[in-house]
């Protein structure tokens, strides 16, 4: 039972990671679709807190996958989720590194490199849209999201700073009784 | 095996590699890219800014997390596949412990109003982070009707229709490449 679950999770994470061009953020809609909508591994609320915690924690953003694995099957889930997200794409990176000079001269590679960025932008915006629908629940949430988006567009601050401001604002608003 | 034209400028043992990437992971609160640059270029001087940019560029076009790819490549260039594995485990291990500790702490106090408000606010803030990144990229990348069309198609398929990502990308990417190729030929 658990073996099947782990195998399924490994397949989902590995196959999604292998097409996650433009970084891990582009995987989030698919992970939400699989974890909440298709497999029912967690509720929307748990997904939101998992997403929030993984964004606050230090480290690479594959941590969302790791934490989903932890929620689903404890230490084994954490290990399977992390490895299946990291290992297949790292093997691709290893191969690409060793073939870099040949790759750089290949015409299809140049074409693909030019063609993919608009798709990446679409994926990132889709990621924001999907997470907004589950994680932004009222006007204060909208204000916080837009505030952070503006801050990272207009300034070069470490993204953690607007994120901390968001948390402080949320706690204050919660104390005042109109958030949470 | 290594594609670096000049030999690595610094002596780096396998232990250095692992501890260096452990530092990257630990410093990476809110944007690990900055901490990676700090450790790899400024502090330990493993790569020059130019080499760093080229490795990062390669990491960004490959699937998966940019930083994971970059770590793999740097590990490989200095110590082969073993180096890649050591660098990756250095990068991930400490953040994983912190992550699980944070999650357990959160779950224990999830009912407290302050924790609930903080989590909701962090979630909304993280959405803003993703949206802000997307908007920033859109300004630079969406400079032709074809680009806007492929961006919109991707957004609609994944964000609105909720179609599976694997199939969507496998269908859209060849069309985008063909469109780019056709435009160049014209």
Question: How would you portray this structure in words?
Answer:
- The complex is a heterodimer of chains A (180) and B (186).
- Chain A has 180 residues and is mainly alpha-helical.
- Helices cover 81% and strands 0% of the residues of chain A.
- The model of chain A has no long low-confidence stretch (mean pLDDT 91).
- Chain A is built from eight helices and no strands.
- Chain A has a domain at 2-115.
- By secondary structure, chain B is mainly α.
- Chain B has a domain at 1-108.
- In chain B, 80% of the residues lie in helices and 0% in strands.
- Chain B contains seven helices and no strands.
- Chain B has helices at residues 14-27, 32-43, 49-61, 66-108, 113-141, 145-160, 165-185.
- Chain B is flat and about 50 Å long.
- At the A-B interface, helix 1, helix 2, helix 3, helix 4 and helix 6 of A face helix 1, helix 3, helix 4, helix 5 and helix 6 of B.
Keywords:
heterodimer; A: globular; B: mainly alpha; 7 helices
Short description:
With 180 residues, chain A is mainly alpha-helical.
Lay out the secondary structure.
The complex is a heterodimer of chains A (180) and B (186).
Chain A: H1 2-18, H2 28-38, H3 44-56, H4 63-98, H5 100-105, H6 107-135, H7 139-154, H8 160-176
Chain B: H1 14-27, H2 32-43, H3 49-61, H4 66-108, H5 113-141, H6 145-160, H7 165-185
Helix pairs in contact in B: 1-2, 1-4, 3-4, 6-7
Strand content of chain B: under 5%
Query: Structural class, from secondary structure content of chain B?
Result: mainly alpha
Stretches with pLDDT under 50, minimum 5 residues of chain A = none
Oligomer: heterodimer
